[in-house]
Write the structure tokens for this entry.
Amino acid sequence: MPSPYEGWALVAGWFAASALCLVNYGSCGRYHCKITGPGFLGLGILDLLDTIGVVNLPAWVTWTALIAMLAVGFGLEYRYKSKCGTCYATLGSK
């Protein structure tokens, strides 16, 4: 892929992943989607700012944020499942 489009492809990917997670949470209610949906949105905004030149981030920042977001999202889902017996959060619950 040509270099000028690499950043935009990454931004589009993060926004698409965010939309998919949020839609998935709305339809099935998987607990981790409460965390990863907004997390992917944040990564999209972060990389958008990097792509248009507002900030200049090294790649490790994005990777660290991704790994942390996934660890928190799936870690909390695991904890929720161990307490409640299901990984599906009821919409509108605490």
Observations:
- The mean pLDDT is 90.
- The radius of gyration is 15 Å.
